[in-house]
Amino acid sequence: MRRFPANDIISLVGAAPRHDLGESVGPDLRLAELLGASQADMGDLRLGYGTAQGDPRLRQAIADLHGVSADDVVTTIGGMHALFLLAFILCDRGDEAVATAPLFPLARNALEVVGAQVRTLQMTFERGYQPDLAELRPLLTARTRLVSLATPQNPSGVAIPPQTLRDILVLMDEVCPQAHLLVDETYREAVYGDAATAATAVALSPKVISIASLSKCHGAPGLRLGWAIARDAALREQLVIGKFNTVISCPTVEEALALKVLQDRERIIAERRSRLAEGLARTAAWVRANSALVEWVQPDAGALCCVRLKPSAFDPAAVSRFYDSLPGHDMRVGNGAWFGDEARVFRLGFGLLPPKDLDAALHALGAALRRATRVAA
Fold it and tell me: Which of 63, 65, 88, 108 is most buried, judged by most C-beta within 10 A?
């Protein structure tokens, strides 16, 4: 009966503690921000079936942001639906796929539940969570059908340089020319302040599939609206058929609201980029103030980063004491073990809480560290 593996990351969709540093999102967008004076327009919306590929206006808006045709876009029920459909379509039982660790665990689960043999490219804190191509090459075989990456990554917020992606595509052409490269770009636009946004990877090759959603950059995870961009016409047709066979279509209300989000994206994203920049600066200051106990890899984008408990201050028992103490502080972080990393690494989310609350949460986190360590701070 265990078709889907359990992972404690499911706790993130339970009750939230006061000091929630485990989330990977920014502040939630409110419905009133979208509707405003246009409530009458939504009142006239027909609640019939949508199309299997997705609302044409919404697909065009997504396409315009990626420099592709609207025909290349398929809307999905969040990014996770796209991940599952791609695993199901591309990987027969016994086929091989390559995924990274750490990684958002549901991305790996989607591959495993369809019967793919998943080979793991381990990316480490010491290397700044960058992929090592010398370690990737032996993981690729003629049976590889999918290489699954994220940039920026979850949980680290680290981006993979475009040249590295090009080098990966060259390796795939040599070893597994039938395989596709899946690039999860959910955090791509969640940069800090006025920083430049990286170009989408979809332009690098027709073998690249880009997926994303409105959950992270736009503050709308409750819409459950994502997309896949595939320039391979045969794959795209299978995505549409697969979507029809699983959910028929996305809800028309959600697609209509998603279009409003994208029509107002400049304001929405600008506000969140400013909030993320402030959260990043406060987190950086906290890491400096607690440098005897923790270290981090500074992220390139997103509302999240990876922090590591220093081995010089935390033995394995102290690591366990740290996690065990968090509920007493009404707090949570994202245990690195959720993502396939070592437990002494944790994901810290700095985008959700308002600045004053973030400061209070970081102060409480510092207290939890000092109580758990075997070395006095």
Answer: 108
Q: pTM here?
A: 0.94
The per-residue pLDDT for 39 is: 60
Whole-angstrom distance, CA of residue 191 vs CA of residue 199 = 12
Domains of the chain and any CATH numbers: 8-28+267-372 (3.90.1150.10), 34-264 (3.40.640.10)
pLDDT in tens, 276-290: 999 999 999 999 999
